[in-house]
Every structure is written in C-alpha cells, then in structure tokens.
Amino acid sequence: MLHQPATPSQDRRNAAATLGTVVVEAQVRSGARNTARHAVELDRQLMIVPGEATSPLSVGVHQLAREPGGARIVTRAAEIIEDLGELGTDLAEPLHSPDTVLDRLDEIAARILDSVPRRTAALPAQIAAQAGTTLREVNRTLPLLHMRGLIEDTAGRYRQTKAAITPALAAGRASGAGGGGDG
Questions:
Q1: What is the pLDDT of residues 29-41, one digit of tens each?
Q2: How far is CA 39 from CA 20, 23, 125, 141, in A?
Q3: Are 38 and 15 in contact (CB under 8 A)?
Q4: pTM higher than 0.70, yes or no?
Q5: Which of 39, 87, 92, 106 is the most exposed place for a label (fewest CB within 10 A)?
Q6: b/e for 52-76, b at 16 or more Cβ within 10 A?
Q7: Taking Cα atoms as reference points, which of 24, 33, 25 lies closest to residue 6?
C-alpha cells in the first residue's frame, strides 16, 4: 500500500486535534511544516527536535526554531509532557551528567593536574612552578592523582594519562576529594 501525502486540510485537522505538535523531521517545504504552521495559528504548543545540521530533513525543523511563534526544543518525552501537562505539576526531571573523577578533585589538586604536561613528563618542581603552589603540596598530591589513574610516573617525572584528558576512562577509579582524603 502506498503512503499518500497529507493534504493541507489534513495538516490543519492534525494540528487542531492535539494539544501540541512535535516536529522531528521536515524539509523546507513539507506537510510537517504546514502542520506546524497550523499549530501556531491554532495557538497549540509547537515543539521541535533539531537534527543534524547538514541533513535536508532537518532544514525545516531548524527554520521553525528561527521563526517567531515560539517553537520549543524538546529532547525527550518528559519534556513534551511538561509542555503539554498541567502547569507546575508535570515537570520533567532535570538531566544530570555523571560525576567524573575530575569533578571530585579539590581546587589545588585540579590546578596541579592542569599543570602536569600531557605529552612530555615533568619534574615535581616544574609542576609546582607551573601550578603556582609549593613543592611540598605537589609531592603530596601527585601520588593521589597517580592512584586515580590521572597521571603516570616515569622515573620521578609525571605526565597526564588519557584518563585525565578523557575523564570517563577513569570513572571506575577511587572516589574522594583529590588533594586529601581516602584516595
């Protein structure tokens, strides 16, 4: 069975039959854009899911985002329910990014880690000078950073590991504050 494209009157009926319209893909000229236009004319909530910038199927969606009329970007069903639900009660839970080992470093440990080179290894005195802290503080913090997999020690010289550059690689390491604590 062939899928018949919607007619302009069907686009209008679709928009009128709902509390809101979500446009996921739309070319510059498309029935989805027509339905979106009708939704705005009928004072219905218009929501969009933007797509890849280079996709012809996203051009219409991206234009809807730029047009006046209040298209709202949604990324998940909970946000659609929030937009169409009862004001103040149907709120989507905020998204949280996972905690990484870098998030658990204290300010001094983070500064010391930032001062450890990524390619060539450096001596603790060089790291202390770069971090603007004492050699004692660096010597106290380097073993903790090493235990967390963020730096490697090569004959008393240190450099960052891939886990320091890509924190998800170190996610399984010990938690706790970087400059002190349980490591």
A1: 888 888 888 888 8
A2: 7, 11, 65, 59
A3: yes
A4: no
A5: 87
A6: eeeeeebbbbbbbeeeeeebeebee
A7: 33
